[in-house]
């Protein structure tokens, strides 16, 4: 509306000084929530005269002055007697708004009735100066979505209570997007949060409750005292998840990935995914094949199946999960991102993540915040996640809210991304089904996260051996007397005539019969069809499997031209342009190749073969140390150009993202991605290697042990900058010793490449070799530009990653008196000092792969030094860190019989490095001298 039109409207309106209060109140309502006023008022307020550079909201006083000035016009028509009615009308609209904002605080959410919540005064009529005399009066209901413009106040008040204070507490007014709020209002207000399900849907819900209750009772009777982390009290989770899957399938979803901790996991495995009950019983009885994997407890196991819906079969996957309660969330979402990429789907319409949380865990564990923060970012979004909180009101043994969180609800963390939160009483399964459907619809409409807070209880202790009365006596006295959800719903359905007692008995007996026979209990279960990912080529291989190693120099030069070419109009920063000009010289044979060019050539060769690459890290686009520059930023318009995206029409995708400032969430996401996509090269790069400390739980519980525990292969590559440069304790060490300590059963590779050719061939090997195991790389910092750390094009073309590199100088092996074994940057310090001292009786051997330790290659190299008795391991790290303690047994095995092995390096230290550069330099020189001095 233009200002002229606005002025015409004001001129024709019935404004008086008295009705100015009404207008102000309407405007205040609009500022609180644009959806709370009628479309006409909203249009008026949206088009009020703007003050340049200032939003309407911050110029409320200007609006007041405008109306006051107009009201002083004596020529305006005054409608006497309307003032009181106008004031009442505003109060009614404020009442509607109050229920939208705070109705959830008085909703009937706790099945046990133990919540002690203060009455919200804003939800009372008296607070809004409305009384019994107004109950029969009709008022305009504004945007209240009931399908009529006016309602009697009594009817309206009842509708508001039904909608916002029943079994559902909808919390969504923190959302700033008006369309999203209007959408949610329409869904709940139009039916007053009272679903009208068909008899078939009601029976489907009942079957889910019978199954949830039946399995727990069966396990409790057959395996008394065994830990199962019962779902009892939160039984509605089973029909909830099934309803979400049905709804998702109807809307075209092809895959659903579920992540959850142990509470109720066995129930979901059997009653949602369709795991054979007999297989679960065998696990309880210890009847498993121990030769398959080291295994894990049954309530950490994953499962996959297909699930029939009206929209076709949906592939289900329950992610394997350790006891770390929330860490599986980014793993699941990463897996979904891989599946979406496989479907060429960028809006989340083909795959859906569901994460199931505990009430104390979602509020208490930081990875939840990290995952929420990632949800709408370019490199990690998946079109929204449905997050279910099984809110049993007890964190292990802690039920006092002031001990578990600092917020009113455990779900308040979700407000950081303006996710709607639907609190629902788990004893009202139809309300549960309603919010399940709305959650799917919201997610698929707005492509954002949505949270369902399933308020329930825990019938037993944290596990079945606990005694919960010791710490929650009042709660558990109440629980013992409280009917189970199944029975409550049966009573409701039989009372309504929706089902007969005979039908209930038949359903119950049928389910029990399936358990007795050890059969599947899920009607929707279907055998898995062939899916688009095939792990077969990557199974049952050893490290030495043959692969296409060599690449011609001509091909490398062709690729080099493509990755050094960019549009002429794309103006680079002078320092970046200098690096690209240097790369052209390397390409033309004028210079040897540096680290950044060799690494980028590896990526070019891989995508040219048709393989996708995904790289994430906090500075990955340019490289933390200004060496990569895979993403070129135009200095004139900030546009970007990525040469690796322009290799050929048939090339694989090259994606590189500067990550959110997170380690544990991002690394878990990339692990999940890599476990779902074996055909891609997936790389996570730490800004500094020690940042992996923050993601240690991912390394410990997934990366190093996932294959042995769960049989899950993963080809994730971790690039961890490592090297002692005098920068202090925090950015020196990638904690190599921790990775080496975790190495066993050939579970992963730990490499320390020292030349550009080595990094080129290591990256290619990780992608081309048909083996998918994690690769941990100690990448350099100063070596990125070290004058000796260069390679020829021919060395790259050789295609071999050398796990061991022998002496490179012209030294007579027969005259060698000492052999120094080392890895990483210290090699160049040793080499330069030895050359400076003109020593010819010491050989330096680099071990470029510390695990799996290359014994065969070492045997070949050491053969020429079999006469040497003096071997020394030299490292930069303190003695209790680095490779010395964890790999010493490998060193001893590699040296000749009768030879001695000693240590040269820093003394043991609680800190990775000193804080003063001068002290660092003295220590570094001392360890080099120690290694090179033959006594």
From TrEMBL:
In its UniProt record, a GO molecular function of this protein is: oxoglutarate dehydrogenase (succinyl-transferring) activity
Q: Where is the Transketolase-like pyrimidine-binding domain?
A: 593-786
Q: What is its EC number?
A: 1.2.4.2
UniProt keyword Oxidoreductase present: yes
Q: Which UniProt keywords apply?
A: Oxidoreductase, Thiamine pyrophosphate
Q: Which major enzyme category is it?
A: oxidoreductase
Cofactor(s) demanded: thiamine diphosphate
Q: What does this protein do?
A: E1 component of the 2-oxoglutarate dehydrogenase (OGDH) complex which catalyzes the decarboxylation of 2-oxoglutarate, the first step in the conversion of 2-oxoglutarate to succinyl-CoA and CO(2).
Give the similarity note: Belongs to the alpha-ketoglutarate dehydrogenase family.
Q: What is this protein called?
A: oxoglutarate dehydrogenase (succinyl-transferring)
Gene name as annotated: sucA
């Amino acid at each position: 509306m233009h200002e002229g039109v606005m002025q015409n409207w004001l001129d024709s309106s019935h404004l008086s000084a008295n009705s100015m209060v009404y207008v102000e109140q309407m405007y205040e309502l609009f500022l609180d929530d644009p959806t709370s006023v009628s479309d006409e008022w909203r249009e008026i307020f949206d088009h009020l005269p703007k003050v340049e550079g200032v939003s309407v909201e911050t110029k409320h006083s200007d609006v007041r002055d405008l109306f006051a000035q107009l009201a002083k016009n004596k020529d305006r028509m005054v409608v006497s007697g309307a003032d009181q009615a106008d004031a009442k009308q505003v109060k009614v609209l404020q009442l509607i708004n109050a229920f939208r904002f705070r109705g959830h605080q008085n909703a009937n959410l706790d099945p046990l009735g133990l919540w002690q919540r203060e009455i919200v005064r804003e939800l009372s009529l008296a607070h809004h100066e409305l009384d019994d005399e107004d109950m029969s009066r009709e008022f305009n209901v504004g945007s209240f979505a009931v399908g009529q413009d006016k309602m009697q106040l009594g009817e309206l008040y009842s509708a508001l209570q039904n909608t916002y204070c029943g079994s559902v507490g909808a919390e969504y007014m923190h959302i700033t997007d008006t369309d999203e709020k209007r959408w949610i209002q329409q869904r709940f207000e139009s039916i007053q949060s009272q679903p009208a399900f068909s008899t078939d849907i009601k029976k489907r819900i009942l079957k889910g409750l019978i199954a949830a209750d039946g399995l727990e009772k069966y396990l409790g009777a057959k395996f008394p005292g065994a830990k199962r982390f019962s779902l009892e009290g939160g039984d509605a989770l089973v029909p909830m998840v099934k309803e979400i899957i049905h709804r998702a399938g109807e809307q075209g979803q092809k895959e659903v990935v579920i992540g959850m901790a142990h509470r109720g996991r066995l129930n979901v495995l059997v009653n949602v995914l369709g795991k054979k009950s007999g297989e679960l019983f065998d696990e309880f009885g210890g009847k498993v094949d121990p030769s398959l994997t080291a295994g894990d407890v049954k309530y950490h196991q994953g499962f996959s199946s297909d699930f029939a819906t009206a929209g076709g079969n949906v592939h289900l996957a329950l992610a394997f999960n350790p006891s770390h309660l929330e860490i599986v969330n980014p793993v699941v979402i990463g897996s979904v991102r891989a599946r979406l990429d496989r479907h060429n789907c960028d809006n989340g319409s083909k795959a859906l993540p569901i994460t199931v949380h505990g009430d104390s865990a979602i509020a208490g564990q930081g990875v939840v915040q990290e995952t929420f923060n990632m949800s709408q970012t370019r490199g990690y979004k998946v079109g929204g996640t449905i997050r279910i909180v099984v809110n049993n009101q007890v964190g292990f043994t802690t039920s006092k809210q002031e001990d578990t969180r600092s917020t009113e609800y455990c779900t308040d963390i979700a407000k950081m991304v303006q996710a709607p939160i639907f609190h629902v009483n788990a004893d009202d399964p139809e309300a549960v089904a309603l919010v399940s459907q709305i959650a799917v619809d919201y997610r698929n409409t707005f492509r954002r996260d949505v949270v369902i807070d399933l308020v329930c209880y825990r019938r037993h202790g944290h596990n079945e051996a606990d005694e919960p009365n010791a710490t929650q006596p009042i709660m558990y006295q109440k629980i013992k007397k409280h009917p189970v959800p199944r029975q409550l719903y049966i009573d409701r359905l039989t009372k309504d005539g929706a089902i007969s007692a005979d039908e209930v008995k038949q359903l119950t007996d049928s389910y029990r019969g399936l358990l007795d026979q050890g059969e599947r209990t899920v009607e929707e279960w279907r055998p898995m069809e062939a899916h688009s990912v095939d792990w077969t080529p990557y199974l049952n291989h050893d490290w030495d499997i043959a692969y296409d190693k060599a690449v011609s120099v001509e091909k490398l030069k062709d690729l080099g031209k493509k990755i050094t070419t960019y549009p002429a109009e794309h103006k680079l920063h002078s320092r970046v342009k200098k690096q690209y000009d240097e790369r052209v010289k390397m390409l033309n044979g004028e210079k040897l190749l540096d680290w950044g060019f060799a690494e980028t050539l590896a990526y070019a060769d891989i995508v040219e073969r048709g393989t996708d690459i995904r790289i994430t890290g906090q500075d990955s686009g340019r490289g933390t140390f200004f060496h990569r520059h895979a993403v070129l930023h135009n200095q004139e318009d900030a546009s970007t150009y990525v040469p690796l995206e322009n290799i050929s029409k048939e090339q694989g995708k090259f994606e590189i993202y500067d990550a959110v400032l997170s380690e544990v969430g991002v690394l878990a996401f990339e692990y999940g991605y890599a476990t779902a996509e074996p055909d891609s090269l997936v790389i996570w790069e730490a800004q500094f290697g020690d940042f992996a400390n923050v993601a240690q739980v991912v390394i410990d519980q997934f990366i190093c042990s996932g294959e042995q525990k769960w049989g899950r292969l993963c080809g994730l590559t971790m690039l961890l900058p490592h090297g002692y440069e005098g920068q202090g304790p925090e950015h020196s060490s990638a904690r190599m010793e921790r990775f080496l300590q975790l190495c066993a059963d050939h579970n992963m590779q730990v490499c320390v490449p020292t030349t550009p050719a080595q990094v080129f061939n290591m990256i290619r090997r990780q992608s081309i070799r048909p083996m998918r195991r994690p690769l941990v790389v100690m990448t350099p910092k100063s070596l990125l530009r070290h004058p000796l750390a260069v390679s020829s094009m021919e060395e790259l073309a050789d295609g071999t990653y050398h796990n061991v590199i022998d002496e490179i100088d012209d030294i007579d092996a027969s005259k060698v008196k000492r052999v120094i074994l080392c890895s990483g940057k210290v090699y160049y310090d040793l080499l330069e000092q030895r050359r400076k001292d003109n020593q010819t009786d010491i050989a330096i051997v680099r071990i470029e792969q510390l695990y799996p330790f290359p014994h065969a290659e070492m045997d070949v190299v050491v053969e020429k030094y079999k006469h040497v008795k003096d071997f020394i391991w030299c490292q930069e790290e303190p003695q209790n860190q680095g490779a010395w303690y964890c790999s010493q047994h490998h060193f001893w095995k590699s040296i000749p019989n009768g030879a001695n092995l000693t240590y040269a390096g820093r003394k043991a230290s609680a800190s990775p490095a000193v804080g003063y550069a001068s002290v660092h330099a003295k220590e570094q020189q001392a360890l080099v001298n120690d290694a090179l001095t033959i006594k």
